[in-house]
Amino acid sequence: MLDIKFIRDNSDLVKDAIRKKQIKFDLDELLKVDLERVQILGKVEAARARQNAVSQEIPKASAEDKAKLIAEMTELKAGFKVEEDKLAEVMKRWQGLMLQVPNIPDVSVPEGKDESENQEVHTWGEPTKFDFPAKDHVELMLALGMVDFERGTRAHGFRGYFLKGAGAELSWAVFNYAREFFGRKNFQPFIAPAIVKKEYFYGTGHLPREAEDLYKTQDEDYLSGTAEVPMMAYHADEILMASDLPRRFLAFSPCYRREAGSHGKDTKGLIRVHEFFKLEQLVLCRADHTESATIHEELNRNYEEFIESLGLPYHRLLICGGDLSPSKVKQYDTEIWFPSQKAYREGSSASYYHDFQARRFNIRYRDEAGKIHFVHSLNSTAVATPRILAAIVENYQTTDGSVTVPSVLQPYLGGRAVIGHAVTS
Q: Which pLDDT score is estimated for 381?
């Protein structure tokens, strides 16, 4: 959320952000409602001040004056109630509009209407090619007894799956390796809850925009699709010390996504599923753009180094304005090569927000001079399964249908170098 004073003083900049992010929003309507809010608030505060003054005068007044003051107090209370009701209604409209104001994108964010205009800014490795027809991960993993989609669908429904045998072992190996890899990057490890209060999804910006993609409980809480949400809630309504920043979290959590907007996309396999596990990088830092931008590059580079260590070709996309969510300042997507599709598919998303999220969560810090500021927030995927398993299997397949285990993962599989025999069902 942007500060209303900033919005008033920089309305042209905010309007350009609305245009660049392809958002339908009438900023002039917000400014009109805000003026109404300020005017009514002024009346309420004036009435409250007069009430306080009269209440102090009554005990000291003569009998005649006391009667006049009591009558005035009665009139003030009636008028005060009317203005308070007006203020409550205006505040409801104002808060709803404020939630729709987008963050200001960085100057480096390119113009563009949608994902088709995202810009490739970096590549690593040559796209994997074979001297035999490449199989997709579904065929490979079924043949090797690594996954069971039939029983997964029976148990869960559409997009259901069981990882089993070498599939489960490879998943654990990836996470154990990732835990150590990112642990060397000075992160504090967490296991985060997946059930989170509704207001915190508004805090991160997932609500109201992504309501259709979230699972809701009967208690009006939501199942999180990323550890970003509970980890931002971790310091909600707290004041940190500047000396404690930056705070670096590496959070493991189950993740749940309805994939409501993906009808007909990736209906088979492990690319797009309703539930999965993920390690998330999240950082809280000082209110400094240069520091935010530097850490953003660092978080994204952490992921790319991890993928490089697995020997998986990838490219990095700079997300254009029309594909950038309202809450974000800048975003990179790092996509991994899938030989069966002859295409790159998303493996990680790295973003920063300035104080947009922190204002909603009320996360602040006290600087060396004692002044209070809102923190800046950033996040990036560390690793998500089972999608990373699909990428490994496809890129490391061999002509006989077996899969070579990346060397860095072999110690976490008891030294196993090849997945080459099916486990019975």
A: 97
**pLDDT tens readout for residues 297-338:** 999 999 999 999 999 999 999 999 999 999 999 999 999 999
Rounded distance between C-alpha atoms, residue 308 and residue 305, angstroms: 5
pLDDT value, residue 1 = 87
Q: Catalytic: which of 349, 351, 377, 380?
A: 349
Tokens of 399: 């002509």
Q: Of these residues, 50, 346, 402, 416, which one is catalytic?
A: 346
Is 212 assigned a catalytic role? no
Q: What is the CATH number of domain 4-98?
A: 1.10.287.40
Residue 331 identity: Q
**What pLDDT is attached to residue 52?**
67
Among candidate residues 247, 257, 316, 364, the one labeled active-site is 257
| 387 carries an active-site annotation | yes
CATH number at 115-419: 3.30.930.10
pLDDT digits (tens, 9 = 90+) for 144-195: 999 999 999 999 988 899 999 999 999 999 999 999 999 999 999 999 999 9
The H or E element spanning position 167 is helix 166-183
Below-50 pLDDT ranges, the chain: 423, 425
Cα 385 to Cα 179: distance, rounded to the nearest angstrom: 13
Locate the domains of the chain by residue range.
Answer: 4-98, 115-419
Answer yes or no: 89 catalytic.
no
Q: Mean pLDDT over all residues of the chain?
A: 92
